[in-house]
Write a structure and sequence with these properties.
3 copies of one chain form a homotrimer.
Chain A: H1 3-7, E1 12-13, H2 14-21, E2 24-26, E3 32-33, E4 35-36, E5 46-49, H3 56-61, E6 66-69, E7 79-82, H4 86-97, E8 112-113, E9 118-119, E10 124-125, E11 130-131, E12 136-137, E13 142-143, E14 148-149, E15 154-155, E16 160-161, E17 166-167, E18 172-173, E19 178-179, E20 184-187, E21 192-194, E22 200-202, E23 208-211, E24 216-217, E25 222-224, E26 230-233, E27 238-239, E28 244-245, E29 250-251, E30 256-257, E31 262-263, E32 268-269, E33 274-275, E34 280-281, E35 286-287, E36 292-293, E37 298-299, E38 308-310, E39 315-316, H5 317-328, H6 330-353
Chain lengths: ~350, ~350, ~350
């Protein structure tokens, strides 16, 4: 009856899993696996995994009933599923055991649906959700309970909009996009002009937000609509919780933005950029492809493709590390300087005596 | 029928816009303007603007059908609307093209309204919104869908409370206030006393939040209620997304608080204070009028009116800039110190030889 | 009829309060106290308190009708409630005057309740709230209006879930837990593996969040569910607004996490840890019991029990303070170095002249 009942099997045998993964099985194909765990925490009936030598000591002691390992660990005494990328394999297995948030089929009768909407097949809308007028939802997209989707919103296929997320008027969402609870997409950009009395007059924000395929937006993120045009998150980018994206920002493809990052207006990121936690970027700069920015850094200027930068203000990461070493040795420098001074005084006195 | 249908015109002619702005028109008054854009992005039918020499090279290449420019650019070959403050003019025009979030007239039948409320004329309340008991809403105020307004809340005229915002019991909101989605106004202040077992006992937070006229509160901000009395945001202050305002904080008039700022309990800001992104202020300090605090700074003490400060901990901005230069040159100092030491050793040896 | 009508008295006499607190009364037992305030703000009819000598000058001028004071201030001329811990006493009195957010008895008819739930006696569920299927709510627990509680959620006794909070599927909440508005408990952890095209493939997050007794979670916090197993907040820990807790983090007992803190995945905190505002911790480290971390610090490695650390990256707090002093004196060092160089040049010239 229920989605969960239909889709989730309670267990998978080691033989089934080996075949699902295209892995080489060493040991019994009949062991029933009912869940997953870390090497330390997994118990009987659970599957765990080892990616490399660093955790090998934990593998030998693990109580897991089976392990996914790379070929270099084929000698372990556990039941083994041997394959070249154990982390990727583990992620694939986790999907088998993952229960998607349950939503009844169809549209809950307590949801509010505006006029003139077009919904693809298999759309599910949860209790007390709001979908405005003139919206298009692609097939199999889910709007969970207590979400707010405004007017003129277009969402592609196979999207998951978690409970209590808010997508405001006119925003455009691609396919397979995941938006977590409490995220706000399409709030006004922060723009004012001062009038002659020094008061801040609002600049209307008449643009939208566009989110491309395979993007994930974390819980309680805020993504502002553009002043004109669009704020744009491109394909495959993954955004952690509580991140702020200001108006007219462009984030390229396959970027990773860790929690509590803030990006100011009109800044542009290339592809495969990584921003560590609590990084802040000023507005109107460009961050090149594959740039990595260290945690808590503040970036006041553009950064060229491929660079690693850190610090407040951010400088090349290697220079930053050297600077830190020198900063910690400042008291020592100070003492050396004092000693040199004393010696020079001595030398000067000696000279005068000559 | 609908609000949008009633208020939004699809286009405005250059002649109408010149007259609306009190601008001097150079060129045809008959060009139909259907939207706005930046100099780089605006295309046919769109209006753009130029504020000064910095972007003049973009103006000459712009595909916009007309430009708002200051008198010093009256020589450009585009159709021009010439006026003294192009940025203010552009903001005014943007209002003409801005579609306010659509809300049907009156109170949606799926909204929950408590007892004993008084609503001014033209109040609109969206689907699945909650307004508690004993609330007063001024005329033309809008509570969008999925908002939560608690009991004993008073909101003035012409306010806009965006979807999924939360205003808790007893809070007082002025006129023309805008509160964005996901903002929480009136959560408990963070206050505990340790009992003799070292456990944290909650101090009830029995005060409220007062927000004065013309304030704007960003998406997913949190503004805590006072322990006693009130947390107070004064007239004209604009707050970006994800800002934290603790209990009993007072923010003066016309301040600008950029995204992810945090202000600790009982701190007081004067008027026209600017806090850049991710700034943190400790509790129980005073920040004078017109103080500006650089991005990511941490401020552990009061700051006098008119000062600019930066850094962790914050120091006068000019001193901060000098310190940064010296920090980057530390490896060089180190090398100089090493060389001096060698020279002194030589001198000492020479002396002993004498 | 209403909860407030039943529980809240409008005033308490000084005699009643002395008896409630076990305090020694000096002065009239007949004074009617109608509210609380700070020494500076409390007026006639209000009670205030003094904890020590620091604010004694304010006490003598206070307009409060009565003061809670320690025995060392029994000489003050106000009506006094004398007891050993005035701050704890004040918190206890504040509870008498605190109006809990009003909720009608029972389950509002506009709430959505799934199937197969078990509710203890005195459970209240507000308008437009969502409680999924297979949930257990302990006695006297309140789910306020517009909350979202998912499926398979277990919440203990006497909990308060404020409006617009979100608790996702499978999470486990203890007794007397308070969760503030906009908080999200159980969002997906942020975990991806790169496939051979460099694209980020989602690792399903199949664990839960467990929150133990007497925990308080601030407004708009995000607490991610575990990859496997659980993210775990232990008894008595208090978390301020906008804090990020990543997947598989363990926070010990009686910790204090100030606003805008971020804790990365799998990091473990001991008991009585204090993280000041905007602190960031990397993943997979251990923070010992009673560690205190200064505001805005970034912590890249484990910290031993009892240590105080500060800075980016964090170092022992005392060393950090010394380093700051030396940093501010860098221009001075520079100048000294320049002078020494000049003197050495002189000495060298002199030597060559010899």
């Amino acid at each position: 009856m229920t989605e969960q009942g239909a889709k989730i099997k309670e267990f998978h045998s080691t033989g089934e899993l080996a075949s699902f993964l295209g892995a080489t099985l060493k040991g019994s194909p009949e062991i029933q696996i009912t869940g997953l765990g870390t090497l330390e925490e997994a118990g009987p009936g659970q599957l765990s995994f080892l990616t490399g030598a660093r955790y090998a000591h934990l593998a030998s002691q693990s109580n897991a009933s089976a392990l996914i390992v790379p070929p270099s660990f084929a000698h372990l005494e556990h039941t083994l599923l041997i394959c070249s990328q154990p982390d990727l394999a583990m992620a694939r297995v986790a999907h088998l055991f993952s229960k998607p948030l349950f939503l009844n089929e169809g549209i809950d009768k307590s949801a509010h649906i505006g006029s003139n909407c077009e919904f693809g097949s298999g759309v599910r809308i949860g209790p007390l959700a709001h979908v405005g007028s003139n919206c298009r939802l692609g097939s199999s997209t889910r709007i969970c309970g207590s979400c707010y989707v405004g007017n003129d919103v277009c969402i592609g296929d196979d999207c998951m909009i978690y409970p209590s997320a808010t997508i405001l008027d006119g925003c455009q969402i691609g396919n397979r996009v995941i938006i977590h609870s409490g995220a706000v997409v399409g709030s006004d950009g922060f723009g004012f002009v001062q009038d002659d009395k020094g008061r801040h007059q609002k600049i209307p924000q008449i643009g939208v937000v566009q989110i491309d395929d395979d993007v994930e937006i974390g819980a309680n993120c805020t993504i502002d609509r553009a002043r004109f045009g669009k704020t744009w998150i491109q394909r495959g980018t993954k955004i952690d919780n509580l991140v702020q994206i200001a108006h007219n920002v462009v984030v390229g493809e396959d970027c990773i933005l860790i929690s509590q990052v803030g990006i100011s207006g009109s800044t542009k990121l290339g592809n495969h950029v990584i921003l560590a936690g609590q990084v802040g970027l000023v507005g109107h700069i460009e961050i090149g492809d594959r740039v990595r920015i260290g945690a808590k850094s503040g970036v006041p200027h553009s950064v060229k493709a491929g660079e690693d930068v850190s610090g407040i203000p951010a400088i090349p990461h290697k220079e930053f590390l050297k600077m830190l070493v020198h900063m910690r040795r400042l008291p020592e420098f100070r003492e050396e300087l004092r000693q040199l001074k004393a010696k020079i005084n001595e030398l000067e006195k000696a000279k005068h005596r000559d």
